[in-house]
Write a structure and sequence with these properties.
By secondary structure, this protein is of the alpha+beta class. The chain contains 6 helices and 5 strands. Strands 1, 2, 3, 4 and 5 form a 5-stranded antiparallel beta sheet that branches. The two termini are 20 Å apart.
Length: 156
């Protein structure tokens, strides 16, 4: 029996280059929020050394910050996002990032051991923005289960 985990991508459009003073507080907090993720219950993997050239080639935008991670389940990701020290930085996002007109976050299930690619992430974001939420790509609003995703894959 295959074990599945929850993958997530979220993107943000920077207000300035990473070395600009506007971004300094965000940069200063990166190690802190990453360390919180690394020790969070249910955390499995996160993108650590973003290949900026590959990301820009896939997303066609050099001003995006792309975050990808894999979690045991949605509850673990929700607790990290909204009930850990991550929330202190998350609440300040308007200081560093512009409001995006499209959905900037997507979740999907991956087999155990799989590390999502930039293309996987873009495909899920494109899908959710075009088709809405299904077990193929969803957010916290649509709490699709691993079984929902398995059943959906069998139908598509």
């Amino acid at each position: 029996m295959t074990v599945y985990h929850l993958a997530q991508v979220n993107i943000a459009k920077r207000l300035a280059p990473m070395d600009d003073p506007i971004m300094q507080d965000f940069v200063d907090n990166l190690d802190k929020i990453n360390a919180i993720a690394d020790v969070s219950d249910g955390f499995i993997w996160r993108l650590k050394d973003e290949d900026k050239d590959e990301a820009a080639a896939v997303f066609q935008d050099h001003s995006l910050i792309i975050n990808m991670s894999v979690w045991n389940d949605m509850d673990a990701l929700f607790k990290y996002t909204y009930h850990s020290g991550h929330i202190d930085v998350f609440k300040r996002k308007k200081e560093w990032f512009s409001k995006m007109k499209m959905l900037h976050m997507a979740f999907w299930y991956v087999p155990e051991g799989y590390e999502p690619t930039f293309q996987d992430a873009k495909d899920r974001l494109d899908y959710i923005n075009t088709h809405g939420e299904t077990p193929f790509a969803f957010s916290f609003k649509s709490k699709f289960t691993k079984q929902d995703a398995i059943n959906y894959k069998q139908l598509t």
